[in-house]
Amino acid sequence: MRIKIISTAVIAAALFACNSTQPVETNPNEKIIAQADSFLSEYNQKYQELYYQSAEAAWTLNTHIVEGDTITAKLAEQADSMYAAFTGSESNIKACQYFLAEKEALSPLQVKQLETILYNAGSNPAIAGDLVQQRIKAETKQTELLFGFETLLNGKPVSGNEIDGILANSNNLKDRQQAWEASKEVGKNLKDGLNNLQQLRNQTVQALGYEDYFDYQVSAYGMTKQELMDVCKDMVAEMWPLYRELHTWARYTLAQKYKQEVPEMLPAHWLPNRWGQEWSGLIEIEGADLDKTLEPKGAEWIMQQGEEFYKSLGFDALPPSFYEKSSLYPAPKDADYKKNSHASAWHLDLDKDVRSLMSVEPNTRWWGTVLHELGHIYYYMEYSNPEVPMVLREGANRAYHEAMGSLIGLAAMQKPFLVDRGLMSADVETDATQALMAEALDFVVLIPWGAGVMTEFEHDLYAKNLPKDQYNQKWWELKKKYQGIVPPTERGEEYCDAASKTHINNDAAQYYDYSMSNILLFQFHEHIATKILKQDPHATNYYGNKEVGAFLKKLMHPGATVDWRTHLKDNLGEDMSAKAMLNYFAPLMDHLKKVNEGRTHTLPESI
Ligand code: X8Z
Ligand code: ZN
């Protein structure tokens, strides 16, 4: 049965009727509580239904991209429009405002739901209906252009995995540069679309009083833009001395590897990642080449072992539908469709229908990504419980969501775990400092990229209306400032290198989530290692420990029904802080200072 949405007039009439018919001694709070409950239960039901339809259509759009397939795009747009019309409807907004005016009378859970409903309305307000429609269309188009793009290398189509393979393994700088440049070609096609989305995203949220789209996305954390930018600035500043040492180490190490002079800044194509966002591929730990171990085992094995790890902590097996409906492996070479090549996890019905979209291959990078995505999936499954209303089936904040699987990814690279799981021989004498290096090249290197480059670019894009003819200049200015990375050759405004990053197109103004998640996950890890496992945080083995699982479930179970700060304090006894991460990497700082002695640093001492 379709539920009619209550309008303010209906609510007011209902209240009035109640007032005139109820006995005088009835607590007036009870009435408004009951009214709000009835509104919320109807809302949640309809929300789930429309969310599901829209997610299903988006799933098809992302897993089966066929050039010129207007039907899939149309279906996705239609479903999105229905979802937008409901979540942004004037009557729903008014109802929330009406109830929130009586906040004190309501329960905290009701207030949280009403606030979230209003927040969701913020990106789709009916009063900006035409703009919302245009934005939905533009977003669908951008996804098609990004993932339908045929990247060519020497005239032949190549996949993202193949580009990554070259950047991970080739010592030939010419090949590397070609692969890197090929991976940026897609940006040219996306520039107009990004410019269009920049305007449309801003205009739609402005209709409900947000300053701009960046302001809107940040408000989910209960922060102002300035507060968020300050948090990001602090994260970058705290990690900077370590990043600066890593940068110097990487310049000298790579110059030697490629037999070149030591460059002032790192050429983008020298690094083992298209965006230079993580450099863990630069280190090889003797006797512990996980790539070699994983290769013969195959992609399916990686998936299965990932699930096994979570199960060993006490999580349930994945529902059979996960394997039936997910799109886990690369599309066959001769497939007549393309798929989104960036990994993601989906909660389609906000209940049991969980899926992941990946292109898993048997290597270390995908091992980490599988565990990351499964973290999202298990978070979905954990908060899909009767205590969490549909509209609050989200992470305590977005960074929590990103942190869970990355935490397991960190744990899954530590020696005691690898030995336990037969992925490393117990006899291998590993160098603990090298292992720490590999972790820093992943988790530390992401901070200036995420909290610096990506965040400041998107801040300027939305909050400062960055002009289109300055996109690339700004991008490379930030890459140099925060990452010390420069392009192989001049990149003019015909390119749009920022748009080669998925999130700029379809996960806009949220990338600080990942930097915050790295900070949070070291706090979680320190707690687990010292309080639960009583092991050195650098050498843990979570496998099979139900207490670790119980702790994670406790973090996950309430979804967004809790305030993220209170939740952290309640479970860890502390606020968000980089202290755990800094402590963890402290031994590396001493080591790097020694290794870099006599070398020239080209990044400033502080930022
Ligand atoms: O996008 C992701 C995940 C999906 S939420 C694979 N990550 C960021 C990225 O790839 O840019 C994980 C780490 C950073
Ligand atoms: Zn993620």
How does the SSE layout of this entry go?
Layout: H1 8-21, H2 28-63, H3 70-87, H4 90-100, H5 108-122, H6 129-148, E1 152-153, E2 156-157, H7 160-169, H8 173-184, H9 186-206, H10 213-219, H11 225-257, E3 266-267, H12 290-294, H13 299-312, H14 320-325, E4 344-347, E5 354-357, H15 364-383, H16 398-411, H17 415-420, H18 432-443, H19 446-463, H20 471-483, E6 485-486, H21 502-506, H22 512-533, H23 546-556, H24 564-572, H25 579-595
Parallel strand pairs: 3-6
Antiparallel strand pairs: 1-2, 4-5
Helix pairs in contact: 1-2, 2-3, 3-6, 4-5, 6-9, 7-8, 11-19, 11-25, 13-15, 15-16, 16-22, 18-25, 19-20, 19-22, 22-25
Pfam families: Peptidase_M2
GO molecular function: metallopeptidase activity; peptidyl-dipeptidase activity
InterPro entries: Peptidase_M2 (IPR001548)
